[in-house]
Design goal:
seven-stranded mixed sheet, 31% helix, Aminopeptidase, Acyl_CoA_acyltransferase, alpha+beta, N-acetyltransferase domain-containing protein
Length: 147
Amino acid sequence: MEASFQQAEEKDVRDLEQFLAGANVSSDGIRSRFEYYLLARDGEGKMVAAVGLEPMKNIGLLRSLVFSPAFPHERIPALLQQILLVAKKNELHSVYLATNKPSSLPLFEALGFKQVEAEELPAAFYASPHGKQLAGIEGCLFMFRPI
């Protein structure tokens, strides 16, 4: 299956909210920050993957990485590389992520992310309600990548 990437536009918000809800992922803040989301659509225009950034001053928090079973897993690195370009375009200096899946660390390390301890996270991370919530989750792993 071929999947094309596109930056989300206002007309995509409802579709994106439904896609995330189908994966039981919060869509809080999408309406005001849709331009920080990247979508993947199949040849028929159906959304098959999405990923977003929550901007916090000059850093971004990777969030809402969701893909359907139809999305080719070998395209996940390309999807992540594209969202890093969105971060660069929006003049973010670095991107952070949180995961509870240690098995995903090698993928993120291959894209230049390095693991950091919660105590090393910048103050802007804790200023975000979502970032603060993540920092309080036991077993949550954090990673960082300069842009």
